[in-house]
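Q&A FORM
Asked by: J.P.
Topic: structure of UspA domain-containing protein

PROVIDED:
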Amino acid sequence: MAVRRMLALLTGTEADAPLLRDAFAVASRHGARLDALFVRRSARSGADFLGDAFSVYGMESLLEDLETAGSQAAMAAKSAFETAAGAAKEKAVGGFTDFIGLPADALSAHGRLCDVVVMAKPGAEGDRAREDAARAALLETGRPVLLLPDAGAEPASGRFARVTAAWDGSQEAARALIGALDFLADAEDVDVVTVTDEGAASELGGAAERYLDLHGVKADLREEDREGRPMGVALAEIANESKADLLVMGGFGTSAWREQVGGGATRRAMRHAACALLVTH
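REPLIED BY: S.T.
REPLY: Here is the structure written out as C-alpha coordinates.
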Protein backbone atom coordinates (compact mmCIF):
# COMPACT_ATOMS: atom_id res chain seq x y z
CA MET A 1 0.00 0.00 0.00
CA ALA A 2 1.43 3.36 -1.02
CA VAL A 3 1.75 5.84 1.82
CA ARG A 4 0.43 9.23 0.74
CA ARG A 5 -1.07 10.77 3.88
CA MET A 6 0.29 10.43 7.40
CA LEU A 7 -1.25 11.82 10.57
CA ALA A 8 0.91 12.64 13.60
CA LEU A 9 -0.75 12.69 17.03
CA LEU A 10 0.76 15.46 19.15
CA THR A 11 0.66 15.98 22.91
CA GLY A 12 1.84 19.55 23.42
CA THR A 13 4.94 18.29 25.25
CA GLU A 14 8.67 18.16 24.53
CA ALA A 15 8.13 14.78 22.85
CA ASP A 16 6.46 16.47 19.85
CA ALA A 17 9.62 17.97 18.35
CA PRO A 18 11.62 14.72 17.90
CA LEU A 19 8.49 12.85 16.83
CA LEU A 20 7.78 15.40 14.11
CA ARG A 21 11.38 15.42 12.93
CA ASP A 22 11.32 11.69 12.34
CA ALA A 23 7.77 11.65 11.00
CA PHE A 24 8.60 14.31 8.40
CA ALA A 25 11.66 12.28 7.40
CA VAL A 26 9.48 9.20 6.80
CA ALA A 27 6.89 11.25 4.93
CA SER A 28 9.50 12.89 2.71
CA ARG A 29 11.14 9.57 1.83
CA HIS A 30 7.83 8.06 0.75
CA GLY A 31 6.40 11.09 -1.02
CA ALA A 32 3.69 11.49 1.58
CA ARG A 33 2.08 14.48 3.28
CA LEU A 34 2.19 14.78 7.06
CA ASP A 35 -0.73 16.34 8.91
CA ALA A 36 -0.80 16.82 12.68
CA LEU A 37 -3.64 16.47 15.19
CA PHE A 38 -3.83 17.78 18.74
CA VAL A 39 -6.84 16.84 20.87
CA ARG A 40 -8.00 18.73 23.92
CA ARG A 41 -11.18 18.10 25.82
CA SER A 42 -13.24 21.08 26.88
CA ALA A 43 -13.10 21.02 30.67
CA ARG A 44 -16.43 22.80 30.86
CA SER A 45 -18.18 19.94 29.10
CA GLY A 46 -18.69 18.34 32.50
CA ALA A 47 -20.61 21.31 33.89
CA ASP A 48 -23.99 19.94 32.84
CA PHE A 49 -23.45 16.85 34.95
CA LEU A 50 -22.49 18.71 38.14
CA GLY A 51 -24.91 21.61 37.94
CA ASP A 52 -24.99 23.67 41.13
CA ALA A 53 -22.15 21.59 42.57
CA PHE A 54 -19.79 23.86 40.64
CA SER A 55 -20.61 26.81 42.85
CA VAL A 56 -20.67 24.74 46.02
CA TYR A 57 -17.25 23.26 45.53
CA GLY A 58 -15.63 26.19 43.75
CA MET A 59 -15.05 24.27 40.53
CA GLU A 60 -15.06 27.34 38.29
CA SER A 61 -11.43 28.21 39.02
CA LEU A 62 -10.31 24.63 38.50
CA LEU A 63 -12.03 24.51 35.13
CA GLU A 64 -10.41 27.77 34.13
CA ASP A 65 -7.00 26.33 35.03
CA LEU A 66 -7.71 23.22 32.95
CA GLU A 67 -8.85 25.31 29.99
CA THR A 68 -5.70 27.43 30.24
CA ALA A 69 -3.46 24.33 30.37
CA GLY A 70 -5.22 22.89 27.35
CA SER A 71 -4.79 26.10 25.37
CA GLN A 72 -1.11 26.30 26.27
CA ALA A 73 -0.54 22.68 25.23
CA ALA A 74 -2.32 23.32 21.92
CA MET A 75 -0.11 26.34 21.23
CA ALA A 76 3.00 24.30 22.08
CA ALA A 77 1.92 21.52 19.71
CA LYS A 78 1.24 23.99 16.90
CA SER A 79 4.58 25.70 17.46
CA ALA A 80 6.40 22.36 17.32
CA PHE A 81 4.62 21.51 14.07
CA GLU A 82 5.42 24.85 12.46
CA THR A 83 9.08 24.60 13.48
CA ALA A 84 9.43 21.06 12.11
CA ALA A 85 7.54 21.99 8.96
CA GLY A 86 9.98 24.83 8.34
CA ALA A 87 12.82 22.33 8.13
CA ALA A 88 10.92 19.74 6.07
CA LYS A 89 10.38 19.41 2.34
CA GLU A 90 7.48 21.57 1.22
CA LYS A 91 5.58 18.68 -0.38
CA ALA A 92 5.62 16.78 2.91
CA VAL A 93 3.99 19.58 4.90
CA GLY A 94 0.27 19.25 5.57
CA GLY A 95 -1.89 21.06 8.11
CA PHE A 96 -2.31 21.30 11.86
CA THR A 97 -5.67 20.64 13.55
CA ASP A 98 -6.55 21.67 17.10
CA PHE A 99 -9.56 19.51 17.90
CA ILE A 100 -11.67 20.35 20.94
CA GLY A 101 -13.68 17.34 22.01
CA LEU A 102 -13.35 13.63 22.67
CA PRO A 103 -10.28 11.75 21.36
CA ALA A 104 -12.51 9.10 19.76
CA ASP A 105 -14.37 11.76 17.79
CA ALA A 106 -11.11 13.42 16.71
CA LEU A 107 -9.56 10.16 15.55
CA SER A 108 -12.64 9.01 13.65
CA ALA A 109 -13.00 12.39 11.94
CA HIS A 110 -9.36 12.92 11.01
CA GLY A 111 -7.68 9.51 11.10
CA ARG A 112 -9.77 7.15 9.01
CA LEU A 113 -8.71 8.68 5.70
CA CYS A 114 -4.98 8.52 6.28
CA ASP A 115 -2.56 5.75 5.38
CA VAL A 116 -0.59 5.73 8.62
CA VAL A 117 -1.12 7.27 12.05
CA VAL A 118 2.17 8.28 13.68
CA MET A 119 2.80 8.75 17.40
CA ALA A 120 5.52 8.39 20.02
CA LYS A 121 6.19 4.85 21.23
CA PRO A 122 5.78 4.04 24.93
CA GLY A 123 9.05 3.45 26.72
CA ALA A 124 10.37 0.31 28.40
CA GLU A 125 8.90 1.31 31.74
CA GLY A 126 5.46 1.68 30.23
CA ASP A 127 3.56 4.88 29.55
CA ARG A 128 -0.13 4.31 30.11
CA ALA A 129 -1.16 7.52 28.36
CA ARG A 130 0.78 6.62 25.20
CA GLU A 131 -0.37 3.00 25.30
CA ASP A 132 -4.01 4.04 25.64
CA ALA A 133 -3.58 6.59 22.85
CA ALA A 134 -2.12 3.92 20.56
CA ARG A 135 -4.99 1.58 21.35
CA ALA A 136 -7.53 4.33 20.66
CA ALA A 137 -5.84 5.18 17.36
CA LEU A 138 -5.91 1.55 16.26
CA LEU A 139 -9.52 0.94 17.19
CA GLU A 140 -11.03 4.26 16.10
CA THR A 141 -9.23 4.71 12.78
CA GLY A 142 -8.70 1.14 11.59
CA ARG A 143 -5.42 2.37 10.10
CA PRO A 144 -1.85 1.18 10.72
CA VAL A 145 -0.21 2.98 13.63
CA LEU A 146 3.50 3.74 13.42
CA LEU A 147 5.07 4.06 16.87
CA LEU A 148 8.39 5.88 16.71
CA PRO A 149 10.91 5.62 19.55
CA ASP A 150 12.47 8.71 21.06
CA ALA A 151 14.75 10.19 18.42
CA GLY A 152 18.50 9.93 18.58
CA ALA A 153 20.99 12.69 17.89
CA GLU A 154 21.75 11.58 14.32
CA PRO A 155 19.79 13.04 11.41
CA ALA A 156 16.67 11.02 10.64
CA SER A 157 16.78 9.20 7.29
CA GLY A 158 13.13 8.15 7.26
CA ARG A 159 14.12 4.65 6.18
CA PHE A 160 13.62 1.35 7.98
CA ALA A 161 16.50 -0.65 6.53
CA ARG A 162 15.95 -3.82 8.57
CA VAL A 163 12.38 -5.01 9.17
CA THR A 164 11.04 -7.89 11.22
CA ALA A 165 7.47 -8.84 10.31
CA ALA A 166 5.54 -11.11 12.68
CA TRP A 167 3.33 -13.64 10.94
CA ASP A 168 0.80 -16.06 12.42
CA GLY A 169 -1.79 -16.21 9.65
CA SER A 170 -4.27 -14.00 11.52
CA GLN A 171 -6.33 -11.19 10.01
CA GLU A 172 -4.40 -8.69 12.13
CA ALA A 173 -1.04 -9.97 10.87
CA ALA A 174 -2.28 -9.88 7.27
CA ARG A 175 -3.47 -6.29 7.62
CA ALA A 176 -0.13 -5.37 9.17
CA LEU A 177 1.83 -6.83 6.24
CA ILE A 178 -0.39 -5.05 3.72
CA GLY A 179 -0.20 -1.76 5.62
CA ALA A 180 3.60 -2.02 5.75
CA LEU A 181 4.19 -2.77 2.05
CA ASP A 182 5.67 0.65 1.26
CA PHE A 183 8.14 0.31 4.13
CA LEU A 184 8.96 -3.31 3.29
CA ALA A 185 9.69 -2.45 -0.34
CA ASP A 186 12.10 0.24 0.82
CA ALA A 187 13.98 -2.02 3.25
CA GLU A 188 17.29 -3.77 2.67
CA ASP A 189 16.43 -6.84 4.75
CA VAL A 190 13.01 -8.23 5.62
CA ASP A 191 12.51 -11.17 7.97
CA VAL A 192 9.10 -12.83 8.19
CA VAL A 193 9.06 -14.47 11.62
CA THR A 194 6.71 -17.15 12.89
CA VAL A 195 6.95 -17.83 16.62
CA THR A 196 5.98 -21.33 17.73
CA ASP A 197 5.91 -23.28 20.95
CA GLU A 198 8.59 -25.88 21.52
CA GLY A 199 8.28 -28.82 19.15
CA ALA A 200 5.55 -27.23 17.04
CA ALA A 201 6.05 -26.95 13.31
CA SER A 202 4.65 -24.18 11.17
CA GLU A 203 4.27 -23.75 7.41
CA LEU A 204 2.56 -20.38 7.65
CA GLY A 205 5.53 -18.35 6.48
CA GLY A 206 5.48 -19.61 2.90
CA ALA A 207 2.18 -17.91 2.11
CA ALA A 208 3.46 -14.57 3.42
CA GLU A 209 6.69 -14.96 1.45
CA ARG A 210 4.83 -15.61 -1.79
CA TYR A 211 2.50 -12.66 -1.22
CA LEU A 212 5.38 -10.29 -0.55
CA ASP A 213 7.25 -11.57 -3.60
CA LEU A 214 4.32 -10.52 -5.79
CA HIS A 215 4.86 -7.00 -4.48
CA GLY A 216 8.59 -7.04 -5.16
CA VAL A 217 9.61 -7.67 -1.55
CA LYS A 218 12.21 -10.38 -1.00
CA ALA A 219 11.83 -11.78 2.49
CA ASP A 220 13.69 -14.36 4.54
CA LEU A 221 11.57 -16.80 6.52
CA ARG A 222 12.40 -17.52 10.14
CA GLU A 223 10.79 -19.83 12.65
CA GLU A 224 11.60 -19.00 16.26
CA ASP A 225 10.89 -20.86 19.47
CA ARG A 226 8.72 -18.99 21.93
CA GLU A 227 10.78 -20.45 24.81
CA GLY A 228 8.01 -19.85 27.31
CA ARG A 229 8.06 -16.10 26.80
CA PRO A 230 4.92 -13.97 26.42
CA MET A 231 4.36 -13.51 22.69
CA GLY A 232 4.91 -9.74 22.75
CA VAL A 233 8.21 -10.15 24.62
CA ALA A 234 9.35 -12.89 22.23
CA LEU A 235 8.64 -10.74 19.16
CA ALA A 236 10.35 -7.71 20.68
CA GLU A 237 13.45 -9.69 21.64
CA ILE A 238 13.67 -11.29 18.19
CA ALA A 239 13.51 -7.83 16.60
CA ASN A 240 16.10 -6.49 19.04
CA GLU A 241 18.49 -9.39 18.36
CA SER A 242 18.14 -8.77 14.63
CA LYS A 243 18.87 -5.06 15.15
CA ALA A 244 15.65 -4.32 13.32
CA ASP A 245 14.61 -0.74 12.65
CA LEU A 246 10.93 -1.71 12.46
CA LEU A 247 8.76 -4.48 13.91
CA VAL A 248 5.53 -5.12 11.97
CA MET A 249 2.75 -6.93 13.83
CA GLY A 250 -0.98 -7.25 14.28
CA GLY A 251 -2.32 -5.57 17.38
CA PHE A 252 -5.07 -6.01 19.96
CA GLY A 253 -6.33 -9.23 18.43
CA THR A 254 -7.87 -10.28 21.73
CA SER A 255 -10.78 -8.57 23.42
CA ALA A 256 -10.34 -5.06 24.76
CA TRP A 257 -10.99 -6.37 28.29
CA ARG A 258 -8.22 -8.95 28.06
CA GLU A 259 -5.80 -6.41 26.60
CA GLN A 260 -6.61 -3.93 29.34
CA VAL A 261 -6.33 -6.40 32.22
CA GLY A 262 -3.70 -8.83 30.99
CA GLY A 263 -1.45 -6.45 29.08
CA GLY A 264 -1.46 -8.43 25.84
CA ALA A 265 1.17 -9.00 23.17
CA THR A 266 0.78 -5.49 21.79
CA ARG A 267 1.55 -3.68 25.03
CA ARG A 268 4.49 -5.98 25.79
CA ALA A 269 5.97 -5.45 22.34
CA MET A 270 5.58 -1.68 22.72
CA ARG A 271 7.50 -1.77 25.97
CA HIS A 272 10.25 -4.24 25.07
CA ALA A 273 11.09 -3.46 21.42
CA ALA A 274 13.90 -0.95 20.96
CA CYS A 275 12.85 -0.19 17.39
CA ALA A 276 9.81 1.43 15.83
CA LEU A 277 6.59 -0.59 15.56
CA LEU A 278 3.96 -0.68 12.85
CA VAL A 279 0.82 -2.14 14.41
CA THR A 280 -2.51 -2.84 12.74
CA HIS A 281 -5.75 -4.02 14.31
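FOLLOW-UP: The mean pLDDT is 86.
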